[in-house]
Amino acid sequence: MFKLKAVCIALVGIALPLTGQQLRHVEMASVETRAADRTVSLPAELQPYLQAEIEARVPGYIERVLVDRGSEVKRGQLLAQLSAPELMADTAAAESAFHESEAEESQAEAQVAAVQSTYDRLAEASKTPGAVAGNELIQAEKQLDAAKSVVQSKRSAVRAAQERFTAAKTMGSYLRITAPFDGKITDRYVHPGVMVPAGGRLPLLKLQQISHLRLAVPVPEIYVGHIVRGASVSFHIAAQPGKNYTAKISRIASALDPQNRTMMVELDAYNKDGTLAPGMFPTVDWPVSSAQPQLVVPSTSVVTTTERTFVITSLNGKAHWVNVRKGPALGDQVAIRGEIKPGEKVVKRASDEIREGTPMP
Q: For position 13, what pLDDT does the model report?
């Protein structure tokens, strides 16, 4: 029974915290100050600066596709040619109607010229009393007015026919699918012989501008006060380890997403060497600054329990717990706030086993 009691006392003694006994060796570290300017890692996404699903504006059959996935294209370059015989027939009919209207206008103008000549002769003869009956001159004037009205009507018909012809020619030009901007074809959906409807139900190609990219960064609410338009920001991608890229802050949403409390910020990134691609998820070294410098200690100096967060200093040769609040991690250090000053010494590898009042070496 005596032996069992002695073992229990020994076990209890092992579990007791370090109180009232001198610590043999405690490594101390200084509380340092660090400039508040720092960076935090934020996820981002690369997007094309311009992107378009190339669609047919008129229905027709694919006659030719002159590009494929990976093709570099310039604005206005022919990408595909459609065939639509009925559209060409409509254009020809509109052109014929336009020319017919022009001919009718010319004929009406000739009629006006003839009636005008007759009226002028009668008007000149009427200056001699009794040479021309007054009623005859009035009839000639009415005929001239009627002929001029016909000309006006024919001119209106010519304008309408010309507009129909122009619209038909414009519709015919839609059979030529051209690039709306410089970029690269990243997808091809059709081949010759396919019937494509109008209205985007079947896109033909996908064109993306990848020489100039948008770097979209959802910035957490806590950091939105540090956004500076025009500032350069570095980022890196998994496909190119060790290589840093830069982008410039260009567009700020100025509104938070209520779902995740972030503000979308877009940066302009230029893909000079072609190593960047839309859809990549880079990591951005987002700059964060503050008016006040930060106090930092080794990460191992901060102890967090269910009741408090603290560091351990030496006060009159004894351990003293100082309550602190943890800030962001800075490598192997962490920022803190509390009743502590720069230059004070704290236990480098602290734990709650070093109780308040434990003698310090």
A: 38
Tokens 């378009």 correspond to what residue? 52
User: Do 210 and 276 contact (CB within 8 A), yes or no?
Assistant: yes
- Which residues, 6+ apart, have CB-to-CB distance to 137 below 8 Å? 119, 122, 123, 126
Contact between 277 and 46 (Cβ < 8 Å): yes
Give counts: helices (H), strands (E), the chain: 3, 21
* DSSP 8-state symbol, 354: B
- Six-digit token string for 93: 């009919």
pTM: 0.61
CB distance 99 to 214 below 8 Å: no
Please give the Cα distance from 65 to 204 (Å, whole number): 9
Residue-by-residue DSSP string for 149-207:
HHHHHHHHHHHHHHHHHHHHHHHHHTTEEE-SSSEEEEEE---TT-EE-SSSSS--EEE
Distance of alpha carbon 192 from alpha carbon 45, whole angstroms: 35
Torsions phi, psi for 131 (to 5 deg): -75, -35
Residues of the chain with pLDDT under 70: 1-24, 35-37, 130-134, 137, 199-200, 290-292
* Half-sphere exposure for 125 (CA within 13 Å, toward CB): 14
Place of tokens 């004070």: 344
Q: Which two tokens stand for residue 272?
A: 């000079």
Q: How far apart are CA 26 and CA 28, in angstroms?
A: 6
Burial of residue 113, with CB atoms counted within 10 A of its CB: 0-12 exposed, 13-18 middle, 19 or more buried: exposed
Q: What are the structure tokens assigned to 352, written together?
A: 């709650």
Task: Work out whether the CA dihedral 329, 334, 337, 338 comes out positive or negative.
Answer: positive
State the residue for tokens 């370090």: 18
